[in-house]
Design a protein that fits this description.
The protein contains 26 helices and 6 strands. It is mainly alpha-helical and 666 residues long. Helix 1 runs parallel beside helix 5, helix 14 packs across helix 20 and helix 22 packs antiparallel against helix 23.
């Protein structure tokens, strides 16, 4: 094959992949541009389309593919409209973070439903025999199905553009994206059009899933594998821009294909470097505008402070009691033989520290970081590499982990904090994905296998405790090296909480909270808002790195999964579940989430479905988290009618709030 033919083949491969990206990203971009909804469940709708087509095509034989290509996207569209009416609609007007959280819960629900019905293994989805044949063009044979993807995708993209720009439907949804209330005053039911828009975007994702499913196969992980590239595309092209989604999709498809062939080291890196560069230089992307970037919502992040029935003194006493109970757990575990409880508590403590670190920027500075797993993963790698090559001391390893992550947080913060809102969330996600893909490229990080077999020493200069040789009898129980790890972990987590609380109670914390409430007002009275945000981000990154380092040191390994974006989603879930802006709330949320996951997974296979449903309900009805649950109950009309205002007044007195803030949303 000549050089020209080889290049032409790679161009066609890039266009095939790019056209799938166009169909996927177009729906994502339309939904965001019109409705300000960042839909993390878009990838699962993509997978759902592939599985619907797989289920329809099988019994129908040769004509099944063509029937599925029409029916399956319609079914996905109906599912999308149901999602919008039942869940997304309730969050209009709130900060885009709540759309992210809601759709993250939907990811758990839809993915678990897919695996429950079709299993966890990949399934072959054969293409029609008429398309499964080579065509000789440009000096080489190429699949007719691949040509079909390019032609079909182009036609569908053109039809979508005409729908948005040359029809009354398109005119109304474009007007609604600019001023929803104005359209409503004209007598147009804009809510119905929003439902149709969400359904249409979901249907486009379903089409993309069918096309790619037949090109490769269908699997439960296909949704999670494409959602991040889809976000890269909409960022490059411009959030909310259909034209940007088309150009960005084709561009990313070509770049990935050529990088895979001619520069394998850059595969998986170059698109995220481009994403970061675009967000730094032109946050609105190539064709985007400031409208539709989360700017016309009027909601704010809802923190959980002031929502409890307990006074600060009572909460402190409960905190002391909780720490005391944690101190005796290893002793009780030895007596009862239930040693797994110690392992579970170690996981909870590490995730609690991770959630605490995020709360400093999310709950107090109002910065939504979708890439916080970057610091958790880098901290774990830094800790293990230090233990392997520098010193066996856990103290040294954790100090290195904190220092490295704080330095990276300063660099990331320097570039990221100059943008805000959705753009900040996306650039932090880009940095996390860049590091995630990078660890696969280097031998010193262990590649895809990670690093294993690390031994830790709790001391310095040979003075300390070796967990493998430590054993102290205390009556009927023996404290071994596992107890040393547990108590050290507990001390670090409690110390980190006290440090964070001291920081928040200092003038620095007061400035952060004023920035969260009104950035313009804080800047007007003379505070350097950017500098304060960056400092908070550095502290947060250091604590997240400490959490990752603790996990790696305790378990003796690190793997690329520590940097996977799903960890960022889970820690945000924990933070909001407990109640952000309280420090202790996210730690409580981490405990509930990890414990619920452990208990449910022991009894039912569909534990993700249960957690997803519960979390969706919490996002909709208890957005301030578990710590606000007493006030939420007290403010409910049924409760008020039953007990009058006495309980609500008591809530306000105990929490120090005289005029409770209650959100009444349609």
């Amino acid at each position: 094959m000549s050089v020209a033919s080889a290049v032409a083949e790679q161009v066609l491969n890039g266009l095939v992949v790019g056209m799938v990206y166009v169909l996927l990203a177009a729906g994502l971009s339309i939904i965001f541009g019109v409705m300000d909804v960042i839909n993390f469940a878009h990838g699962e709708l993509f997978a759902l389309g592939a599985y619907f087509a797989f289920a329809i095509a099988g019994p129908l034989g040769g004509a099944g593919f063509w029937v599925a290509l029409v029916v399956a996207p319609l079914l996905v569209g109906v599912v999308g409209m149901g999602i919008e009416r039942l869940t997304v609609k309730r969050l209009y007007g709130r900060d885009p973070l709540y759309h992210i959280l809601l759709t993250f819960g939907l990811v758990l629900i839809i993915n678990d439903l897919i695996t429950s019905v079709w299993g966890k293994s990949a399934q072959p989805f054969p293409i029609p025999s008429v398309l499964d044949q080579p065509v000789a063009l440009f000096g080489f044979n190429y699949s007719l199905y691949n040509y079909g993807i390019i032609v079909f995708g182009s036609a569908l993209a053109l039809g979508t553009w005409l729908l948005l720009n040359r029809t009354r439907f398109g005119m109304i949804i474009r007007a609604g994206s600019e001023d929803r209330e104005m359209v409503r005053t004209l007598g147009i039911d804009i809510d119905r059009y929003y439902t149709l828009t969400f359904g249409f975007g979901a249907a486009l994702a379903g089409v993309a899933g069918i096309v790619l499913g037949a090109y490769q196969n269908v699997s439960p992980t296909m949704g999670s594998s494409v959602i991040i590239p889809a976000f890269v595309i909409v960022v490059l092209g411009g959030l909310g821009s259909f034209r940007g989604a088309v150009v960005g999709g084709l561009f990313v498809g070509l770049v990935q294909t050529f990088a895979r062939t001619y520069a394998p080291f850059l595969e998986g890196l170059i698109v995220f470097l481009l994403m970061i560069a675009v967000l730094v230089v032109k946050p609105t992307g190539l064709f985007g505008t400031s409208v539709g970037a989360g700017d016309h919502h009027d909601g704010a992040l809802l923190h959980g402070s002031g929502g409890g029935v307990l006074s600060a003194e009572t909460r402190a006493k409960l905190g002391y009691a909780g720490v005391g109970a944690l101190l005796v757990v290893p002793l009780l575990a030895e007596v009862t033989g239930v040693t797994y409880s110690v392992t579970l508590l170690e996981d909870i403590l590490i995730w609690a520290l991770f959630a605490l670190s995020l709360d400093l920027v999310l709950g107090y500075a109002g910065l939504v970081s979708l890439g916080h797993t970057l610091f958790y993963g880098v901290g774990a790698y830094a800790s293990v590499l230090t233990l392997m090559h520098v010193s066996p001391s856990v103290f040294v390893a954790l100090a290195v982990a904190v220092a490295v992550c704080a330095a990276i947080a300063w660099g990331v913060g320097y570039l990221s904090i100059r943008v805000s809102g959705v753009f900040f969330a996306m650039i932090t996600l880009g940095f996390a994905e860049l590091f995630y893909n990078a660890v696969f490229k280097f031998d010193f990080t262990g590649g895809s296998d990670g690093l294993f077999g690390v031994d830790a020493f709790y001391g310095l200069a040979g003075l300390g405790v070796d967990p493998g040789e430590f054993a102290v009898p205390l009556g009927p129980v023996v404290l071994d090296g596992g107890a040393v790890q547990y108590y050290f972990l507990l001390a670090v987590v409690v110390g980190s909480y006290l440090l964070a609380r001291r920081l928040i109670r200092a003038p620095f914390g007061s400035v952060l909270q004023s920035i969260r409430e009104s950035e313009e007002r804080a800047s007007f009275i003379g505070y350097d808002v950017t500098a304060y945000k960056r400092r908070a981000f550095v502290v947060s990154g250091g604590l997240a790195g400490l959490a990752g380092g603790l996990f790696a040191a305790n378990n003796g390994y690190v793997a690329p999964s520590f940097l996977h974006w799903i960890n960022s989603g889970e820690v945000i879930v924990m933070t909001v579940l407990g109640g952000m802006g309280t420090l202790y709330g996210p730690m409580l949320g981490a405990g509930v989430f990890v414990a619920a996951e452990d208990v449910l997974s022991s009894y039912i296979d569909q534990w993700q479905l249960v957690i997803g449903v519960l979390f969706v309900l919490f996002v909709i009805f208890v957005p301030r988290g578990l710590v606000s649950l007493p006030r939420t109950v007290a403010d409910h009309p049924l409760f008020e009618s039953a007990v009058g205002g006495r309980f609500r007044d008591r809530v306000g007195e105990q929490a120090g709030v005289t005029d409770p803030e209650v959100d009444r949303r349609e």
